[in-house]
Amino acid sequence: MITLKNIVKSFEDKVVLQDVSSMFQPGLTNLIIGQSGSGKTVLMKCIVGLLTPEQGQVLYDDRNLVTMTKRERTLLRREMGMIFQSAALFDSMTVMQNVMFPLDMFSSESAHRRAERALYCLDRVGLSNATQKFPGEISGGMQKRVAIARAIALKPRFLFCDEPNSGLDPKTSAVIDELISDLTHELGTTTIINTHDMNSVHTIGEHILFLRHGKNDWEGSMKDIEDTASQALKEFINPQMAHH
Amino acid sequence: MFIHTFLVSLGRYLQLMGRALSKPERWRVYGRQYVTEMAALGVDSIGIVLLISFFIGAVICIQIKLNIQSAWMPLWVSGYVTREIMLLEFSSSIMCLILSGKVGSNIASELGTMRTTQQIDALEIMGVNSAAYLILPKVAGLVTMIPLLVVFSTASGIIGAYATAYIGGIITPSDLTAGLQHDFTAWFFWMGVIKSLFFAFIISSVSAFFGYTVQGGSVEVGRASTNAVVSSSMLILFSDLFLTKLLS
Description:
heterodimer; A: 244 residues; alpha/beta; 38% helix; B: 248 residues; mainly alpha
């Protein structure tokens, strides 16, 4: 479980996150939604530790990421998997080498077992036939699937996805959403997805946090969203309403 | 303002080197990367080093013979001067200046692109010390390969000088050989090697610093690449001055 308590983050004099609190349960797909510039990416970076908030706590179970030592943070990060907006595959490595990388770095198992695990992960995302290809030789959707395989290679407890559908067509987006949702339930990970794709919200959103101007404007389940009192959220999920 | 910027950059550079030169998480993975970098930065530079050194060796020999040598000088002076220039300056300092253009821009643009495409963030999220994983093998790889490049450069320069003797007929091979062998001081060779080790560290670490700390997009990557070459060239020139005084 990940708990955010009163997160504040600013850049020089611009406050980007104002007192954001929330709780993300394991085994659920937790979505952070909001318009561009609402602070979604900054919040995600604060959660994974790429940025440090000025105030507040980021609790992984009971461990506060903000006050951790470098060593503790490094160990915690081995429990994390992340899928970046740009997939962020290592372009000098093949698909297989990309998935093998975290295993080679941190797994103490034999080379044979590591290769087996990498092949299992690639098979799980339907890419067992592309092992020897380089990232530049495969489509954007396939790159995202390789990124998912790499993220789950070390059986993470926390999975983060930053705009996983960015740049993908609706059909491929649906495949990626389904894959992330299935893996979340299968592995019991605490999954946080940063998105502004409403299809994702409708299909895989189990717990949704709506950010507006850097504040927690609304949060709840997909069912609750229909009855929300937040005008801003209504307009976000149905832009047509803004004109009526 | 300039001093402030310089001190801030120096501080950041030292911090990055502190992270980069730390104990690897997994020696096996770093070892593989080290071999890759030796090939990419060292072996792939052999061609350009041989080519440039060959022509420079030939040109020095011709220049000395035609423009400097006179009747009161011994016949071996062209060979002697060619050897000394190649050993003392060209094969270490000038060759490293040339390599700072090729290798330095390569390192800066590679790391800069990895930064802008979030590959470095991906390493950090995995719990990998990205500075050590990306920079340490490059520094170690280039420092390992540079003495070899110095030897190749000197040898190629001398072959170039012989080409002027055998093909151009500028000087007789026996005069050239006499000059190359005259009053040989082995320390001059080691001086070149020692200097090149410092220069290799400068090229790889300074270029890595500019690439690793890129913020922005492709324009910034290009700017970082240029800054890496300019800064490492300047530092090579300054340190050449001190090292030459120190080692002579």
